[in-house]
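Re: [ENG-882] Designed sequences occasionally contain unexpected residues at chain ends

Forwarding the minimal case from QA. C-alpha cells:
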C-alpha cells in the first residue's frame, strides 16, 4: 500500500473521506455541464471533405466527445476533418483503451495512419503517447496535448491509498501518479512532432493545494512537460482549456506549421 502524501497527513481540519469527495468533485465537477451544453450542436458549419487532413480528438478522464465540441467546430472551420474518439475512461485499463484508439484510427484513417494528427485533453494525451510508442514506424502527423499529465499528477499520489478515489478514477486514472510504477514514468521518449498547451489557473483549490508550483487545478505546469515538445502556458483551467479561442488558434497553427505562434520559455 502506498504511503500517503505528507501534505495529507498534516491537513487536520478535514476528515479524509470528506476531503476525497470534495477533490473528486473538483476533478470532474464541470464535466456534465460541458457535455450537456455542447452536445446539442451550438456551433454549426459544414464538415470538411474526406481528403482534408484528419485530426483525431481524444477527451480526458471522465469526459465524453461532447467536451471537445467547440474545439472540433473550430478545427473544422480551419479545414480539418475531425474524428472525435470516445472511450470509457473510468472502466477499462490503459491497455484496452489504447486498443480502442488503434481501432478508431484504423476505421477513420486506415489508408495512411502515419499522417493522422491528434489533439488530446488530459488523459487522452497519455493514451496517444502509449499508442504511438507501439508503432514501429515514425509518425508523420502532429500531436497537440492540452493539460496532459505527462509526468503524472500529485493528486493521484496523495490519495493512492484511498479506495474511494481509486474507484472514482478507475483502473487507468489510478495509474496517473508520479511514482515509478505510474504510466507516465514508463512511457518512452516521444518520436513525433508534439506541442503541449497547459493552464495556470485553477477551479480546484484542494488540487492546487496538493500540487507544488503553478497548476491548472489537476496537473502542475511542470508535470505537463515532456522532453522534445514545444511548450506553451496560458491562463486556462484544466476543465475548460479546450474551449478557449486562443487555444484553438494555437492548435491550428501547430498542426499546420509544427510550432506555436507564441511559446513560453
Amino acid at each position: 500500500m502506498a504511503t500517503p502524501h505528507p501534505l495529507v497527513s498534516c491537513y487536520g481540519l478535514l476528515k479524509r473521506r470528506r476531503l476525497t469527495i470534495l477533490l473528486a468533485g473538483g476533478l470532474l465537477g464541470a464535466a456534465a455541464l460541458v457535455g450537456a451544453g455542447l452536445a446539442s450542436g451550438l456551433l454549426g458549419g459544414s464538415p470538411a471533405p474526406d481528403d482534408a487532413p484528419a485530426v483525431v480528438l481524444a477527451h480526458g478522464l471522465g469526459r465524453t466527445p461532447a467536451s471537445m465540441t467547440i474545439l472540433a467546430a473550430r478545427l473544422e472551420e480551419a479545414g480539418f476533418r475531425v474524428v472525435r474518439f470516445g472511450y470509457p475512461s473510468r472502466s477499462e485499463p490503459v491497455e484496452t483503451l489504447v486498443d480502442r484508439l488503434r481501432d478508431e484510427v484504423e476505421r477513420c484513417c486506415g489508408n495512411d495512419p502515419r499522417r493522422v494528427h491528434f489533439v488530446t485533453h488530459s488523459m487522452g494525451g497519455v493514451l496517444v503517447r502509449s499508442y504511438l510508442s507501439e508503432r514501429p514506424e515514425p509518425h508523420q502527423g502532429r500531436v497537440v496535448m492540452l493539460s496532459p499529465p505527462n509526468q503524472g499528477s500529485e493528486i493521484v499520489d496523495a490519495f493512492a491509498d484511498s479506495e474511494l478515489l481509486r474507484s472514482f478514477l478507475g483502473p487507468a486514472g489510478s495509474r496517473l501518479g508520479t511514482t515509478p510504477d505510474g504510466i507516465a514514468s514508463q512511457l518512452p521518449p516521444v518520436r513525433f512532432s508534439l506541442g503541449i498547451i497547459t493552464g495556470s489557473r485553477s477551479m480546484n483549490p484542494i488540487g492546487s493545494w496538493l500540487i507544488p508550483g503553478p497548476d491548472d487545478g489537476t496537473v502542475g505546469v511542470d508535470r505537463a512537460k515532456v522532453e522534445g515538445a514545444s511548450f506553451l502556458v496560458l491562463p486556462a483551467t484544466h476543465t475548460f482549456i479546450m474551449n478557449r479561442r486562443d487555444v484553438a488558434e494555437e492548435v491550428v497553427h501547430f498542426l499546420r506549421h509544427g510550432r506555436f505562434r507564441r511559446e513560453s520559455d
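QA comment: On inspection the terminal residues look reasonable. Residues 1-15, 28-45 have pLDDT under 50 and may be disordered. Proposing we downgrade this to a documentation issue.
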